[in-house]
Each structure stands twice: as C-alpha cells, then as structure tokens.
DNA sequence: AAAAGTGTACTATGGATATAATACACTTAG
DNA sequence: CTAAGTGTATTATATCCATAGTACACTTTT
C-alpha cells in the first residue's frame, strides 16, 4: 500500500500536484513499486483532509501519464515499467538540482557556500 | 535601475510572486540597493509581457513588506535598511536549501550524490 | 502652462484550483 | 445474494490569478 502519512501538504502549491509528486518521488526512491496498491480516493481524502475530487484529479492525471491503472469498482494499482522508473530516477533529481543551483546563484551565493549549506542541513534535518 | 531583463518567467508559479522573489534575490545578492529606482508599472508590464495590474500587485505587496516606497506621480524606489538586507541574506538561502534537501531525501538520494550533482550543475549552468 | 509619464483605483471577465453534494455502475467481502 | 467499498461523472459554488479597459490625481519634463 502506497504510504501518504509522510506527506505534509504545504500551501502555495496545488494539492493535486503535491500528491502527484509524492507518488513519483516514491517510485523514484524505490519505496513504491509496480503493482502496489493505492488507498481509495475516499480514504486518502479523509487522511489528508482534502476533497475527494482533488484526489481524483491527481489520480486521473497520474493514470494519463501511465503511473497507475484504475478499473471501476476495483482498487487502483501502481504501474511502472523498468524504463519509466529509470527515466524518473535520472530526470527528477537533476531537474530539482538545476532549479536549486539557479536560485542560489541568483542570491549571489558561491558554489562552496552552497555545498557547505546543503551538507549542514542534510545532517540537521529530521534523523527520521 | 533595478534590472528585470534577466527574469525568465516560468509557469506553475504566480507571476506576481516571481517578481517579488526576483527583487528580493537582487537585494540579497547586493545587486539591488537602497534608493535604487524601479521601472514604472507600465514599462515593466511591457517588458515582461504581463498585465499592469499584475505588476502593481507585486509592487504593492513589496511596499507592504517594506521593500520599496511609492508616491503617486513619482517613480518607485527600493527601500532596504541594513538590518533588512542582513536578515534576507541569512534566511533566503537557508529556506531554499532546506526545501531542496527535503526533496532530494524524498527521492532517496544520498548526501554525497546530492553534493556531487550540485557541483556538476554549478559549473555547467550558463557561464553568463 | 501643457504634455507626458507615473501611481493608484475600479469594474468586469475567464481560467485554474478546491470544495460540496449527489448519483450510478462495478467489484469485492460478508 | 447482499451490502459495503470503489471508481467515475456531474453540477454548483468560492477563491485566487491574470487579463482588459478605464479613470483620475499627482509629478516631471518640455
């Protein structure tokens, strides 16, 4: 069952996008695998305190992108081929890192300062 | 005059927020200083291809936060005390780095991998 | 003084996001 | 089989973002 208890919704970003990214991040990290079961729309709606239509929108878009399969009446399952996973694992971190580097350069930071900051925060942030 | 020619608008983030962040980043980087002149609402509207009301919203919020001063009929000027700048220079990079570290952890990346990726992209990205 | 430029305000419209409330067909568990 | 759970669809409402057009007072330039 795909976990959503670790998903903390932040405002400023559309909820349905945060749900989509959470699923993709799980697939890229390997904690979510092909064939795995997803919570129902209604259950996830209750868990996150979000309207069922918002969950449906996220799941519908994920299905259109080929990351899950749904059949009326049955539970939805993750769908991820090896090629899909590999592409995701390759592109997702790269994309995020590029945006980060760009923003840090805009702030006038140096490469060394940025790396030091990342290393410091990496250890500092919640040891799980 | 505060420069906006380097601002490349991306979609998915409200335009008025991108304008606000661009100004703040400039102040934090030291390329935008106290008393500096801003382009008029109409001029910046034409430059970015954005509605004047959107520019006005960004400038109004910046003024409410104390980053600029406007007087009807006259041009708007940057307002940034030493304390404001120092706080910005301290908090902005930290905030962005935290979000980055969190997202990279969600993708299952290691600290070493992340640092290596940042260093690689830092050199790669546009040498201006 | 006149004209141009600037800040500011207002109304109206359209699209995206999110909520609310139903409704129905299908699958699964009892 | 029956009931509960599930996916799916629909209509309506509210808010935010952005655009469009207009208007007016003030400042600066000419």
Q: Number of helical runs of chain A?
A: 5
Q: Decide which structural class fits the backbone of chain A.
A: mainly alpha
Portion in strands of chain A: under 5%
Mean pLDDT of chain A: 95
Number of strands of chain A: 2
pLDDT < 50 runs, ≥5 residues of chain A? none
User: What's the end-to-end separation of chain A, in Å?
Assistant: 20 Å
Describe this structure in words.
2 copies of one chain form a homodimer. Chain A is 59% helix and 3% strand. Chain A has helices at 15-29, 41-48, 52-64, 82-106, 111-124, and strands at 68-69, 77-78. In chain A, a hairpin with a 7-residue loop joins strand 1 and strand 2. In chain A, helix 2 (41-48) crosses helix 3 (52-64). The two termini of chain A are 20 Å apart. In chain A, 25% of the residues are buried. The mean pLDDT of chain A is 95. The A-B interface holds A 12, 17, 22, 25, 28-31, 89, 92-94, 96-98, 100-109, 111, 113-115, 117-119, 121-123, 125 and B 12, 17, 22, 25-26, 28-31, 89, 92-94, 96-98, 100-109, 111, 113-115, 117-119, 121-123, 125. Chain A binds a DNA duplex (30 and 30 nucleotides) through residues 14-16, 40-43, 50-54, 56-57, 59-60, 70-76.
